[in-house]
Every structure is written in C-alpha cells, then in structure tokens.
Amino acid sequence: MGDPVLRETSKKVTAFDTKLKNLVDDLKDTLMDFQQRKKIGRAIAAPQIGVLQKAIYVHTADRSFALVNPEIIWTDDQVFDVWDSCFSFDVAFFVNIQRFRTIKVRYHNEWGIPHEEIFEDDLSELLQHEIDHLSGIMATDHLKNNQNIIMRKEWEKRYC
What we know:
Shape: globular
Order of helices and strands: HEEEEEEEHEH
Largest sheet: 5 strands, antiparallel
Number of helices: 3
Strand content: 25-35%
Helix content: 25-40%
Radius of gyration: 15 Å
Strand order of the largest sheet: 1-2-3-6-7
Number of strands: 8
C-alpha cells in the first residue's frame, strides 16, 4: 500500500505477443511464490508487480488461467459479505466488504482468444477484487467504516 502505481488505471493490452506471454509468466511466478511463502492468495493483477497493463493471473485448486482486458459486463442484484485481503497490503489484515454474488466477465486469454464467462461466489468476489486493481481501486476503498477491519492473526483464529 502506498505505491502510487496501485492507484493508476491500467492500459488495454493491444498485442498478444511474447511481451504479454512474459507478463503472464511473471504474474504466475509471483503468485506461486507468494502462495508458497504466505500460504494464501488465489490471483494477482499486473499493477501489483508494477505493470500498468490489463492482465490478471488466477491459480486456484480447480483451475489456472489468465484474463487479459477483463471487464465485468453484467452483475446480478444479489450481494454478499466477504473477508477480503490483498498482497498489496501484505495480507496483514482483512476487510469485510460486499461483492456481487454472480458476475459475467468478457476477457481474452493470453493468446488473444475472446471469452465470456459467468463467475459465482468465490471466483466472483476474487475477480471483482482483481479487476478493481486494473482501475486503481483497492479493497479498502469499499469499506464503509473502520469496524470492518481485522488483523490476519485474528481472522485466522476466527475463520480458519
């Protein structure tokens, strides 16, 4: 937190080339390293490694994939509360915020193939978090008051 790059708007990827492939590889390697060291995390956005490009890499137990130029094109009306944390604040604390339960995202994979996909629950909130990063929005920006913050150690005691 505090790095001004995290507050900037990322640029649309226009070339699906070796440079993009290298960015996706960097995102993947950074995420895997962070998952190994911090034992938490499922995705990372390019601004988190200092690159203002619209690219995200996701790695969960069920699937791994890149989203290039993702945009949320539909949300349902139902929201739910989530405990959200972020590599950008070193997963030191969690914020309780609301996210849409279901979203539809239009994106390209790293080879330029277009996709439209509906994401629900965990992946929905995760992608909302990462897509926010591409617009310079942090999870803390969604806080309504300071009562919705909890330190990681306390979160682990209560919810893990």
